[in-house]
Amino acid sequence: MAGVKLRVILVVLSFLSFLSVSVAGYVYFRSLQDSAHKEAEKDSALQAERIRNGVSSFLTENLKTARALAGLVEMRAVLSDPRGASLARVNAVLDHFREALAANVCYLMDGEGTTVASSNRNAPDSFVGNNFSFRPYWKEAIRGIPSTYMALGVTSNVRGVYFSHPVYGVAGGPAVGVAVIKVSTERIEREFRQGSEGIVLLVDPKGIVFAANRGEWLYRSLQGLTQEDAEEVARSLQFGQGPWAWSGLSILDGGKARDKGGMEYRFYRLDVSAYPGWSVVYLDDLRSVSRKISGPLFRATGPIILLLCLLIGLSVLFLYRRASGDIVRRKVAEEALREAQKQLTQHSGELERQVKERTRRFTSILRHTPAVVYVKDREGRYAYVNPRFTELFGIRNAQIHGKTDFDVFPHEFARAFRENDRKVLEGRTPTQVEETFPKGDEPHVYLSTRFPIYAAAGEATSLCGISIDISGIKKAEDQLRRLSDSIIAGQEKERAAVARELHDEFGQVLTALSLDAAWLRDRLKGADPEGSRQAQSMCGIIGKAIDDIRGIATRLRPGALDNLGLVEALDWYLRDFENRSRMRCVYRPHGALRIPDRAATAAYRIAQEALTNVARHSGASRVDVSLRVEEGALLLSVEDDGRGFDPERLDESKGLGVIGMRERALLIGGALSIGSRPGGGTRIDLRVPLDAPQGAPS
């Protein structure tokens, strides 16, 4: 469809271009034609003027010649004696003039109009002796007026111009004869034909064409003769007997004329000044003028127009091919765009469906989740709360919108919530904290996870919080902690009891056996040396057993811990550990420490477990133990130079007793941290606030 439209547009453009070129060419042609017509009109006027001047000059000059002829002595002489030698001399003169002037004939007429002498005296059409007194040129000349007369010869029937001049017998006297020179109109017509492309006519006062450059116009009446004029002309024999048919030419306004064939001419009519009443008519064929203009113009502009048409055709073809290529590419692009739009629509529909599905799921989760979910802006104003929030705190989503924690909760709770919100927004990282929410008489503990929500520009504009009620878990943990504390305390008591039993009971028995074995050794020393040696061996075994029992009892519950305190107990244990493990131990206690029994026992057990782990797993050659009190807290650190381990995989190391150490730390309100890396040793730090109530969670 687009291709058809393009073709129509290009055809229209081509037509308009061709029309524009044609109109421009026509306007240019008309301009040139008008200019050429004006130039042709000017040339025609000049041509007519030149012809008229030529005719006038011709008539004037020949009249002078006739005067010169009439003035000759021989002319007067023969008129007085038209015989003998005078006549011969005149004939010679007339012959000379005829030859010199290339005239038709030269002759002399007497006072009666009779031809006395003539240069055609010997010709068949000689009119010597004929009387032409009816001729106007004789009548004028005999009255003393030189005359020019154009007429058809009566005898010769040849057209000519008669130049007559009076011949005077005496100076100042009347004319006694007339000298006449007849010149053929051929000279005039030859002048007409030279340099003239139009029709040139020499017309008498009544409009009869006497000379023309085209023979068909001769003796034609230019505009038609009346009967009277025709009879008058016939009587004068000036142009023969007639008839003088109308030429068919109609004179129009505006200097134009049209012949009977419909051909139009530019019409010029100029009077011959030397021959009053006569005029020169110049007809310039307008079609000839147009052809004369159009021919060169078409020859000049034809190739240009053809070249322009060819260029237009090539331009249209080029534009069409280029536009066709553009249309094809555009159609391909449009098809690709439609396909992309279709895919985009499908993708948008799929995304919309997924969004709806996820929104439904998310809404369902928010509606049915036991967790409290809420969204706040940077100023802490609530933007959304889920139904659980409404259920717990009795505030609907629409009511809480735009309110802060200070508008909903007691001031001490709201301040804590706001502080946690500030940490999330400033830190731009998710956080997890335990928070206490007011609910009835007994506040509930929630594990709250907050994370920032970022805008498109990457700015944290709001936050979302998800709080899970862990009050039950916290109660269970507290109960478990108290149970664990009770178990550990029981263990300590049991250890102490076992240690006392070992030290007091079993140690006393072994001591009695040792005394009996010594008595038996001494008793058998003389009588039975072998028995004495066996008794001595028994004394050694019993002594070693006493030492082992004492060591076991000490490790179960070192008496130094109860009697001397944690510093001395650790010092004794490290020396014992160094002896048993062959590992260098460096102990750095700082100052005299007054530590509660439960904290001292827990710290001692943690150090004991840490050193046991060092001996079992680290492969270390040295271990450093420091103990000090700083800023109201007991700080214990155990650091070795062993192989270390990955703390991320600590849960996989179930045999390290880490859980027991953490449990002991928690029971006394302390915190245990473990730092280690593969190949970099391990460091265990215990921090126990001494001013906190023992057993409170850190």
Keyword list:
single chain, 6-stranded antiparallel β-sheet, 22 strands, rod-shaped
Topology:
Elements (H helix, E strand, L loop, with lengths): L1 H69 L2 H8 L3 H18 L3 E6 L4 E4 L17 H7 L4 E6 L6 E10 L6 E10 L1 H8 L5 E5 L5 E4 L14 H10 L1 E4 L8 E3 L3 E3 L5 E8 L7 E7 H83 L3 E6 L4 E4 L1 H7 L3 H4 L4 H4 L2 H17 L3 E7 L6 E11 L5 E10 L1 H57 L1 H28 L2 H5 L2 H16 L2 E6 L7 H22 L3 E9 L2 E8 L17 H10 L3 E6 L5 E8 L9
Parallel strand pairs: 18-19
Antiparallel strand pairs: 1-2, 1-5, 3-4, 4-5, 6-7, 6-12, 9-10, 10-11, 11-12, 13-14, 13-17, 15-16, 16-17, 19-20, 20-22, 21-22
Helix pairs in contact: 1-7, 2-3, 12-13, 12-17, 15-16, 16-17
Order of neighbouring strands in the sheet with most strands = 7-6-12-11-10-9
Question: What's the pLDDT, averaged over the residues?
Answer: 84
Total number of strands: 22
- What share of residues is helical? 40-55%
CA-atom Rg in angstroms: 78 Å
End-to-end Cα distance:
83 Å
Instruction: Give the low-pLDDT segments.
Output: 694-698
Count of helical stretches: 17
Which structural class should the secondary elements be placed in? alpha+beta
Major beta-sheet overview: 6 strands, antiparallel
Strand content: 15-25%
Shape: rod-shaped
Quaternary structure classification: single chain
Folded structure, characterized:
- The structure is a single chain.
- By secondary structure, this protein is α+β, with helices and mostly antiparallel strands.
- It is 53% helix and 21% strand.
- The strands form four sheets. A six-stranded antiparallel beta sheet has the order 7-6-12-11-10-9. Strands 2-1-5-4-3 form a five-stranded antiparallel beta sheet, with helices on both faces. A five-stranded antiparallel beta sheet has the order 14-13-17-16-15, with helices on both faces.
- Strand 1 and strand 2 (115-118) form a beta hairpin.
- Helix 15 packs parallel to helix 16 (597-618).
- The protein is rod-shaped.
- The two termini are 83 Å apart.
